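Title: [Solved] Heavy metal translocating P-type ATPase 3D structure

Original question kept below for reference.
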Amino acid sequence: MVTGTCLAAGAVCWWVGAATAADVLWSVGTVCGLLPALVWVGLAVRRGRTGVDLIAVLALAGSLAVGEYLAGALIALMLATGRWLESAAEQRAAHDLRALVERAPRSARRRSATGVVTVPLGQVGPDDVLVVGPGEAVPVDGRVVGPTAVLDESALTGEPELVERAEGDRVRSGSVNGGDVFEIRATSTEADSAYAEIVRLARQAGAEGAPVVRLADRYAAWFVPVSLAICGLAWLLSGDPVRAVAVLVVATPCPLLLAAPVAIVSGLARAARRGVVVRDGGALERLGHARTVVLDKTGTLTAGRPWVTEVAVAAGWTAGRVLRMAASVDQYSPHVLARALVDEARSRSLELSAAREVAEEPGRGARGVVEGAVVSVGRREEGGGEPPAWARAAENRAVLDGAAVVWVAVDEDLVGAVLLKDPLRTDAPRTVRRLREAGIRRILMLTGDRPTPAREIATVLGLDEVRAEQSPPQKVDSVRSEQDAAVTVMVGDGVNDAPALAAADIGVAMGATGAGASSEAADVVLTTDRVDRLADAVTIAGRARRIAVQSAVGGMALSLAAMVVAAFGLLPPAAGALAQECIDVAVILNALRVLRSAERRVEPGTRDLLRRFAAEHERLREVIEATRQAAEALSTSDPAEALPAVRQVERLLRERLLPHERAEEHELYPALAAWLGSAEATATMSRAHLEIEGLTNRLTRHLALADQTGPEGTTGLRPEQISDLRDCLYGLHAVLRLHFAQEEENYFSLDE
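Solution (posted by the thread starter after getting help):
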């Protein structure tokens, strides 16, 4: 404000003929730029670095020495503007990991001979018996004393499911009691506990972060000595100090002081509009250099909470009825699996009933009376004899898929099994593809989960490596090993990810759904619950850095050309300052190109279609389940008993699924083809529609044959039909699952 006011006021005075007043105002502006510049140079020299500010100091001092006050005022304004932009680009949020520390327990309830007393955590020692109430965090590491403990260990492992720890089992501090009161016998002190180690690791990793070297200073390493050499030669060969000042004026590194910060600030603004908050310009620069991305699994590549994947039912029951009965009881429970059942029931537009006499037993499940029947939801009672064939098949699929099973019983009879799994985010495959396109050469996954589900997800996404059962210290070690080869990005969402985020070159937190501690430790925060914003951030960072380099290099080339002209006496200082301002304008306009959107957005009408058909997919999942259940019925029961289930599937396909597919074909796909640029982009999906309709027609012909009177005067499925009909149903199930997944990943994820 001061340098700009001095320059403008001096221009007004010069315009009205008050040349002396103009010189005074311009010289004041020059001094206002020189004094802080001297401080900046001094600080840089103390750190063993000389940057672009040195030339600015020489140019300002030279302008005052030879009386070129206008040139000095112009340089001072340029210097102040560049510093302001750089400051705006490098505002950094505190890395004090406040949320991580605030979550740590500060006291414990210790059992003594006189009762239970609350003591500071520092007074807890090994062998103390501690009481942990519902919803409380385990204060120190220990072993369970007495009844089984039900724990939420997501802060340590990232996995959302509750786990059980029997008497004598080890529990770690930071775990949260998800059941009734239990007791532990402490095996460590506060300082030696697992949660304290996470806090210590995060602080240590954040403190060891390498300082950021400004892009401008890297180029100044050679631009400054070249400029000073040309200035010295001009003075030496001509004997005219004004020529030397003229060279310094046009040598003032405006492209470095302005172009790089403007491009970086523009990149920060562009990223913010896409839901990506980058803490400072240095982080954006580093992100543009990144070649390795390390991803957490739960909450980053997956939804971070269990979703219903399948509902298996006994004969005479439907998936909708079983789910409605179970959700009617579970709507009163805070359990994460119970919430998943209720959410699924509501997504299918099932009307829940009021339940009476609801009781919940931690680790076992819930029980209540719904419509006069006693409904149990949770674990299957052991010792009740051999489970039926459909239940054994459901249990087998759960083992193969790595899914959790919630059993549903009505009046003590097992009627259904709900399979739940933490599903892959629909935008995760697009994210991986776009990261490859943005120049990321290596993508790996670190997770505290078991190897089998981790490898399954890594295979689907085509990741380069997966490391499972990783503790927070192991995650830090893995990130550091990757940093030896390339600039590394770590992406996570949980408290257990905070140390690795702080250790990485760039930490990226899923801020919309993740823990506050991970956001505190991160350089980049994704404020929307979409992992594909990571690909946006990498693309924007790379583009911002490229344009910053283009602007800086192009501007320096123009400045070098102007220096040569000034060295020959063809460009006086004031004219040189104006020429330098023209160069400034050119590099700033080029740097502002970062703000321009590089990606196409889906039109509102197409977006509405995507949401409509995505909602229909949710409601049609029961049709997919019914096809598999009908196929199983043909394998496990009498064909006559299975025939009603087959007829029900054929009716659902004709009345609900095929109309949905035809509407997609005639409404959604043309809109997507217009946006994607060609109908070929949706051709494979159209081919799947034909396959689905062909299999449905085959199913209809089987039923027509079953209705015909056979040689013995009977109707029904014939033995020769069973094998092909079963293949037809299993084929429909497989094609529908694949087709739905492809549409959700490739098309529905385009909805912002």
